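re the bet — no i am not wrong, look at it urself. input seq straight from the record:
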Amino acid sequence: MVAALPHSVLFCCDYNAVRSPMAEGIMKKLYGTGTYVQSAGVKSDLDIDGFSIAACKEIGVELDRHRVRSFDQMEQWGDDLGSFDLIVALSPASQRRALELTRVFHLDVIYWPIMDPTGLGETRDAKMSAYRQSRDQILKHMTERWGDPRGEKT
């Protein structure tokens, strides 16, 4: 059954450099501005991954201006995790951190097991294939949960 779109969603992964920015960008592109969408990582010591940018550009999602941020930076900058309706963790480490940070809030934390494409593939084509696979896993989870925004059956 298709769920209603949340008013706000936070996607999280390990570094906010690959999976969570892809999810943030795809969500904004597919479902528009009716849902407030952000992303964060357990850590933020990497820049946005160039292969993530390339894989998303193929489907019309721009990630060039994404700036990585961690859960800790969100708190330092005044973002309240309790203000989100839903947190979608895309890695086991981010799920643990999200559950730890939100144990006093009444909000859902769900886990989507999205493959980490970093370090996979020897050639550029093989690397791009791995990133496309992660991107497509995110797309599949979104359309299964919130339906196809174009009204097509998934």
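see?? The chain is about 40% helix and 15% strand. told u. also Strands lie at 8-13, 36-41, 86-89, 108-111. so pay up
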